[in-house]
């Protein structure tokens, strides 16, 4: 069941990232202004944030398997709309709906935590999140390879087919989980504000991950533009090979989960934030020619992805240690808050690249983990 959860979350969340390395061809095909290209990723993440705030909390109220199925059907329809979009407004509306439907992944993660034994919860969540992160990291190279072999429309068609097949598979295989409930939908939403005010660990973990995910989204939104530009002149297949290197960062997830189970969340968080800062500092300080600069970017992508993975798992382990009857709401708030950081990062990245180039992107990206480190200094040691 853990393998099923991991594969499912990876396939679902990949839908958020197929467009990330294709913003150039999508912008040209739909007539989107280059300075607004970051909106392709930003609106997908905004839709995801809205789904996390208004759909994922239903996991504490309605039967989880049915909620997952409906979300995936919505996502598949939005993917079809993106594939046939001929103007920017249609594509951006479809991107928003892809984000809304993809929140099924964040209904599955607390589902896995609910089924796991308390002493193994961090490791279980780490394994499921490894699948989720593999989906994020593999989405970019897969999209680039498919676009090179066919066209950018094809990846959305293929993903729609996979998503609808996954919807029926999960409906057949997942156990039923009917929460106790006890409140109506608007009471449920109202309780989220109370949870945010009264759960300091949620606020702190969301702040760390918002900084890390903002840096992550900014980097991966812009690096394909830099790689295919005049400095490197790499094809979409080359971008795919580059993006595959980032997959190595997913190995940090189970390691971070195990360390969190051992009570080492504080040191794991510090390491994750330092890795994020290092990923942007190295290319700013070193300029040693085309091949050396490319090698540095490959290493930085692995380091950044490892830091983001470790921070995410450590945060979810802390949140899933809280009472089971509020896990879906806590997870929805956590993911929504840090995806807002991601949306800010991707939109800033597109604008910075258009107006200040890659150097401006790196300086902006460095600010995110530095803010996270500043917040970390206020964390009590106990």
From TrEMBL:
Pfam families (alphabetical): MFS_1 (PF07690)
Domain Major facilitator superfamily (MFS) profile: 1-382
Source organism of this protein record: Duganella zoogloeoides
Keyword Membrane part of the UniProt annotation: yes
Alphabetized UniProt keyword annotations: Membrane, Transmembrane, Transmembrane helix
Lineage: Bacteria, Pseudomonadati, Pseudomonadota, Betaproteobacteria, Burkholderiales
Stored InterPro entries: MFS (IPR011701), MFS_dom (IPR020846), MFS_trans_sf (IPR036259)
Residues passing through the membrane, by range: 37-55, 67-85, 91-113, 125-143, 149-170, 206-227, 233-256, 268-286, 292-313, 333-354, 360-378
The protein's name: MFS transporter
Origin superkingdom: Bacteria
Keyword Transmembrane helix among UniProt keywords: yes
């Amino acid at each position: 069941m853990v393998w099923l959860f991991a594969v499912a979350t990876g396939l679902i969340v990949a839908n958020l990232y197929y467009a990330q390395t294709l913003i150039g061809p999508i912008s040209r095909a739909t007539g989107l202004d280059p300075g607004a290209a970051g909106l392709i990723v930003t609106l997908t993440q905004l839709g995801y944030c809205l789904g996390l705030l208004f759909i994922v909390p239903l996991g504490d109220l309605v039967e989880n398997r049915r909620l997952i199925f409906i979300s995936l059907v919505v996502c598949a329809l939005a993917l079809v709309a993106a594939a046939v979009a001929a103007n920017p407004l249609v594509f951006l509306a479809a991107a928003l709906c892809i984000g809304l439907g993809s929140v099924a992944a964040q209904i599955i993660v607390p589902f896995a935590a609910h089924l796991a034994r308390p002493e193994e919860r961090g490791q279980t969540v780490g394994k499921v999140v490894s699948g989720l992160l593999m989906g994020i990291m593999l989405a970019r190279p897969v999209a680039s390879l498919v676009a090179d072999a066919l066209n950018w429309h094809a990846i959305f068609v293929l993903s729609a087919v996979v998503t609808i097949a996954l919807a029926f598979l999960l409906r057949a295989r997942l156990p039923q989980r009917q929460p106790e409930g006890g409140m109506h939908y608007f009471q449920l939403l109202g309780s989220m504000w109370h949870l945010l005010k009264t759960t300091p660990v949620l606020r702190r973990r969301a702040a760390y991950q918002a900084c890390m995910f903002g840096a992550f989204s900014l980097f991966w939104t812009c690096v394909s533009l830099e790689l295919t530009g005049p400095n490197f002149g790499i094809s979409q297949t080359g971008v795919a090979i580059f993006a595959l290197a980032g997959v190595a960062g997913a190995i940090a997830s189970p390691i971070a989960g195990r360390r969190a189970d051992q009570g080492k969340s504080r040191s794991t968080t510090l390491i994750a934030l330092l890795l994020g800062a290092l990923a942007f500092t190295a290319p700013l300080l070193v300029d040693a020619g085309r091949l050396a600069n490319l090698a540095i970017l490959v290493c930085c992508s692995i380091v950044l992805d490892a830091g983001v993975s470790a921070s995410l798992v450590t945060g979810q382990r802390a949140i899933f240690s809280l009472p089971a009857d509020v896990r879906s709401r806590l997870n929805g708030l956590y993911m929504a808050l840090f995806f807002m950081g991601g949306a800010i990062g991707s939109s800033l990245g597109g604008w910075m690249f258009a107006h200040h180039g890659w150097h401006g992107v790196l300086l902006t990206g460095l600010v995110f983990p530095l803010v996270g480190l500043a917040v970390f200094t206020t964390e009590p040691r106990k």
